[in-house]
Design goal:
This protein is an alpha+beta fold. The chain is built from 5 helices and 6 strands, in the order βαββαβββααα. α3 packs antiparallel against α4. The two termini are 17 Å apart.
Amino acid sequence: YPAAQAAPPRPYLPQDEAARLLPALARNLGYAVDDTRAIAACTAAGAGTGVAPRPERGFPLVVLSHGFFLYPAQNTALAQSLASHGDVVVALGHPGDAVDLALSDGRVVPTDMRAEAPALLEWRRRFHAADDHATRAALIDGYAQALAGSRLGASQATWREDVLFVVHALQAGH
C-alpha cells in the first residue's frame, strides 16, 4: 500500500510471528495462551500488487506506534484503511516495550517486565477508582509528576525518538 490494485487476503500474522508474539502477548496482558490463538486465524489485506503511481507531491506518511506491551501489527486494519486511501503507513516496534520483538538480524528482544514506579501505580489506581469526571480531571495535573521517573515516562521519551528516527530516515530516502 498504497497499492495499485487489490490482492487476495493473507494471514494477519505469519505462523513464525504468531508463535513468538501470541505467547508473549498472553504473558504481558495476563491471558491464557489459548485465549490469543484466534488472532492467528485472522486475515489481512493482500500484498504484492505493486505500488500506486506516486502523486506529484508524494504520499502522506502516517507512523503508527503500538501500545505498551503490545506489537506493531496490532493496528493492521487501521493501517490498511489509511493506506488504501493513499497514505504510506509505517508501524514501529519499540524493543523492550513490545511483545518479544524480532530484529532484522534474528535476535529477539523480550518484553521488559520491570515493575512500574510506585507513584505512577498510585496515580493510576486513584484515577481509575474516581467516581466521576470532575474527580478524574482534577487528577490529570498529577499525571506528569507521576510519569517523571517512571518506566512508562522513560519509554514515552524513547518512543518519541524512535518516531523521529523513522521519519528522518524516510525523508533521507532510506
